[in-house]
Amino acid sequence: MADPRLARETDVFARYLIGAPAGACAAERYAAGHAGLPPTCPAAGRVLVGVAAVHPLLTRIADAYARLLAPRSLLRHKLVLLLAILESSAGSHAAFAPRPGSPLGVVFRLAATGAVFAVCLVAGIILLGPLHLISRVTGAGR
Predict the structure, then answer these.
(1) Is 83 helix (H, G, I), strand (E, B) or coil?
(2) Phi, then psi, of 30 in degrees rounded to 5
């Protein structure tokens, strides 16, 4: 992969999505898939991607924030692109297989996932809300 920024994004985003790094083939497909992403992006979208590409925990927070407050952002496009690639890649498709378990276990996992989302959303509003707003108002990076 020629672009080190995309290589870093691929690694961090894959660790967020499946808990493991993406393979070389998935990373190449992610880089190639950028040709289909929107050609221009507002500064606010670049801010979200920049923060999310630092660490998987920040990706989780930025994703929760973007899910409700910026659903058509560049970050969401990139995560969906990589998710589709990982789901269809030989090295990582097993991460998407259903987990066996009791109905109570499924309910518990669903509740835990919802609670983590809520905490990440609040953290995103506190941490990313001001950055997102400032970048939208100033048009930083145009």
Answers:
(1) helix
(2) -65, -45
Mean pLDDT of the chain: 89
pTM for this entry:
0.87
Neighbours of 98 (CB within 10 A): 6
Pull the structure tokens for residue 5.
């920024």
Among 63, 53, 61, 1, CA closest to 28: 1
Distance, in Å, from the CA atom of 118 to the CA atom of 113, rounded to the nearest integer, reads 9
Domain total for the chain?
Answer: 1
Do 50 and 140 meet the contact criterion of CB atoms below 8 Å apart?
no
In angstroms, the CA 61 to CA 116 distance is 10
Range of the domain at 112: 4-138
- Reported as a single tens digit per residue, the pLDDT across 91-108 is 787 788 887 888 898 899
Do 21 and 93 touch, CB atoms closer than 8 A? no
